[in-house]
Amino acid sequence: MVHLSSFRLLIALALLLSALPAQGFQDEKKDDKKAAAGEKKANEDAARKAVDEFNDKMKEAKLLTDKALLILTLGDFEPKDKCMVPPLGKYLGATAGDINLLLVTSAADALGKFRGIPQAAAVLTGALAGYKKNNYVASRISSAIGRIGHESSLPTFEETFKGLDAEAAAAAVWCIADFPGQIAVEALFRENDRIEVERKKQNMKEENKKVYDRVQPELLKAVKKLTGQPWPTMGEMAIWWKRNAVRFKEECKAKEAERKPETAAARTGIPPIMLVELTFKENAGLAPSNSGSSGANFPTAVMTAVKPAWSTITPPNGGAAALDFDKASGAFAVDLGGGAGIDNLKNLKSFTICGWAMSWGSLEGASDKFAGGGNRLVSWFNPVKANEGVELVFRTDGSLQLGIGQWADASPARSKPAQIPIFDSQATNVYTEYSLKWRFFAMPWA
């Protein structure tokens, strides 16, 4: 009996001792939960305070640029909280005074920093539908949705692949590529599989084929970049994916969990906005589209009837078409906004004019009423109304000259000669000559 009692005592003691560490572990878990709850509340309180300060400052701000800066600064605030989404989301709607949609694009950029927060993705996705006809703003919003990277937004981009806009579909590939790797790669393979099924259908439309031809190379580039694998085809990439998907997804989830928000420096200004963009992709008609932010009010320009003419002689890596003004001079133009110009280009504190140009000859138009003043590349100059506006001209010596509030030929702002060389029609290989003589120019002013 003594032996048996001792045996039972030892068992009870062992059970008691084994229970003690478990109880301590439970206490630690409770402490961790309390600490996490306390940190969460502190973050929420800090976010609410930031929102209150933001709202107060927005009431006092008078200039659009000041408001845009406040929006971007709130987007930089850490830690992020869903309570910050509605105050930013309200500025995704266009307002009468914001003709360049500066507040809209600023709000999109700010919300794009809310990584993984579904409320931010939802408000941007909802706003996107209202800007389908404004390529620039739609692209800024789409990019922000991609940076958030919440899986609920994937259908937005998957629908783009089924449309007829090849460039929008190609851009959607890279928006998806910004999602967490485990979501992005699987989505890209899924889209490629869908396209392969569609290609096998006998009644596939030529318009869809053009989209797929544009999209599939981008799908391969994106998958290779995300996985770090060199396989040259999507078929070979798919074999790798089948073998390594589980491991890859686990690694991506771990990286996403460890991801830390970027430390933002104090903002002193706002990013530039694309006011006017004429890519001349139409290659037909007299109404090239304006894909800049001013496209909301001025969606198309108007070409003079006879010249310029459409041309497929384009810059290296250029678009589908360009405009050829010919060697003969004349009052040929692409007019956006009418003779009086557009309000979107008024009161600019700084700007940059950029584009591609190739010159057929060095004459400045002897029969032109502006002879000696250069060939105008871009102009929104109004000499009648207190010399308002800007013009950029190309001079005989191949230089560029910029006039602000005055005719360009009277301005000291002139580049070095031979910035845009003259095309040599006697060149041995004119196709090589085309590539060599195109020049990209960028004329900043601040």
Question: Would you mind describing this structure in some detail?
Answer:
The chain has 446 residues and is mainly α. Among the domains are: 113 residues, no CATH class; 153 residues, no CATH class. Helices cover 46% and strands 9% of the residues. It contains 12 helices and 9 strands. The strands form 4 sheets. Strands 6-7-8 form a 3-stranded antiparallel β-sheet, with no helix packed on it. Strands 1-4 form a two-stranded antiparallel ribbon. It has a two-stranded antiparallel ribbon with strand order 2-3. The longest helix is centred in the N-terminal third of the chain and has 59 residues. The chain is globular and about 90 Å long. It starts with a helix and ends with a strand.
Q: What radius of gyration results from the CA coordinates?
A: 30 Å
- Strand count: 9
- Strands in their spatial order, largest beta sheet: 6-7-8
SS strand fraction: 5-15%
Q: Estimate percent helicity.
A: 40-55%
Counting helices, strands and paired strands, the structural category is mainly alpha
Distance between the termini: 100 Å
Low-confidence stretches: 1-18
**Quick one: biggest sheet?**
3 strands, antiparallel
How do the helices and strands follow one another from N- to C-terminus? HHHHHHHHHHHEEEEEEEEHE
Shape: globular
Question: In a few lines, what is going on in this structure?
Answer:
By secondary structure, the chain is mainly α. The chain has twelve helices and nine strands.
Topology:
Elements: H1 2-60, H2 64-76, H3 85-89, H4 102-111, H5 118-128, H6 135-148, H7 154-161, H8 166-176, H9 181-199, H10 206-227, H11 234-258, E1 302-303, E2 309-311, E3 322-324, E4 334-335, E5 351-357, E6 375-379, E7 390-394, E8 400-404, H12 430-437, E9 439-445
Antiparallel strand pairs: 1-4, 2-3, 5-9, 6-7, 7-8
Helix pairs in contact: 1-2, 2-4, 4-6, 5-6, 6-8, 7-8, 8-10, 9-10, 9-11
